[in-house]
Amino acid sequence: MPLIETNRLVIREFTMEDLSDLHEILGDAETMKYSEPPYDPAKTQAFLRSFCIDRHGALAAWEKRAQKVIGYILFSGAQSGVYEMGWFFNRSFWRQGYACEACKAVIEYAFQDRNANKIFAETIDGVKSIGLMRKLGMTQEGIQRSQVRGPDGHWADLYLYGLLREQWEKLH
């Protein structure tokens, strides 16, 4: 059942039927470049069941025309009124505005339907992810220098971005 619908997407809870589509995303090395090593099928299945379905930690972005899940959107309550967001999209659908469309819709849902006070995101990707965060209205809240190890094993800076309700309301 859809939570949110946009022109091209249905954003909904994950189901076990999404396993193949989710593995296309999480199993791709380029997609996972700034996160962790690509998932094997067993890890994708365990993650889908335990985190996405049982814990309701993420939402699926289902593309209407392709009739498949093309995006994973982390949407997890960190504490009351505060939600963490993140995203991975199928590489075949990059640079077509899907991540922005989906994330804008989830942000609107968070503030309007979930009464969120803040949405935050973090990344070690200092280019593409930060660009989208800014496009979504998020502002930089800090940089934790050499905070995490990147996929190459080297220490990487962790960029922290957030969007407060009052900022979002000014944009709308």
Verbal overview:
This protein starts with a strand and ends with a helix. It has one domain: 3-Layer(aba) Sandwich (Aminopeptidase), CATH 3.40.630.30. The protein is built from 5 helices and 8 strands; from the N terminus they run E-E-H-H-E-E-E-H-E-H-E-E-H. The longest helix has 15 residues, at 98-112. 31% of the residues are buried. It is an alpha+beta fold. Helix 1 crosses helix 2. It has helices at 19-26, 41-54, 98-112, 128-135, 165-171, and strands at residues 2-5, 9-13, 58-63, 68-79, 82-89, 118-123, 139-149, 155-164. It has an 8-stranded mixed beta sheet, sandwiched between helices.
Which tags fit this structure?
alpha+beta; Aminopeptidase; 8 strands; globular
Q: How large is the share of residues in beta strands?
A: 35-45%
- The overall strand count is 8
Major sheet description = 8 strands, mixed
**What is the helix/strand order?**
EEHHEEEHEHEEH
CATH topology: Aminopeptidase
How many domain units? 1
Report Rg: 15 Å
CATH architecture call: 3-Layer(aba) Sandwich
Number of helices: 5
Residue stretches low in confidence (pLDDT < 50, at least 5 long) are none
Structural class: alpha+beta
Shape from CA axes?
A: globular
Helix content: 25-40%
Q: Provide the CATH superfamily.
A: Gcn5-related N-acetyltransferase (GNAT)
CATH class: Alpha Beta
Strand order of the largest sheet: 1-2-3-4-5-6-8-7
Q: Average pLDDT, to the nearest integer?
A: 93
Intertermini distance: 27 Å
